[in-house]
Amino acid sequence: MDPYQIHTLAELEALFDAPGEAAIKKEVDRIVPVYRQMIEASPFYLMATRGLNGLDCSPRGDPAGFVHVLDDKHLVLPERRGNNRIDSLKNLVDDPHVGLLFLVPGKGETLRVNGQARITTDPELMRRLAMKGKPPQCVIVVEVETVFFQCARAVLRARLWDADDADRADDTPTAGEMLAGVPDSTIDAAGYDHGLDERQERTLY
After folding, report:
1. What residues contact residue 91 under an 8 Å CB cut-off, 6+ apart?
2. Domain residues for 181?
3. Which of 7, 64, 197, 198 has the most neighbouring CB atoms within 10 Å?
4. Into how many domains does the chain fold?
């Protein structure tokens, strides 16, 4: 037992000051023009979902503008080919609630969108979201419930866009090493890594 564990909302709120006016006012129920600019400038977002099999948070990326703003209440997201686990999509079939976090390289602020999602193969949307002549596997339409930006503190603490920290990746395991390092793996790390960059580039779309 942890004697310091927080059990109640009152105990939690006692640890923090009340949110300031800006923290409250920035949250809106639709995509206002300044938030649309952030979405259209972003080449990368994280999607959080939940379902009968648990939680999932996974990345999505494409050239900036790949997320289409249909109107101030709806976003359209292409679902490209990947590892075919489709964890996020399975969750959305179970539970449509979704959370999105948009990042813009070099910018400290991020943008959060919460809403309800549906999966579709609408031919017109599939055509609009095609890349290099290839349509997405399917399309996710998000009905927006809340939108607000997150301040830059987390990105600044992480020095996420700091060029001096760009070599940090050199100290992390390769994809092959990670696959080989999990229990009961039969993956040969060097064999998997050989030509990986080329394979990924060839199968982006």
Report:
1. 49, 50, 51, 53, 55, 56
2. 173-202
3. 64
4. 2
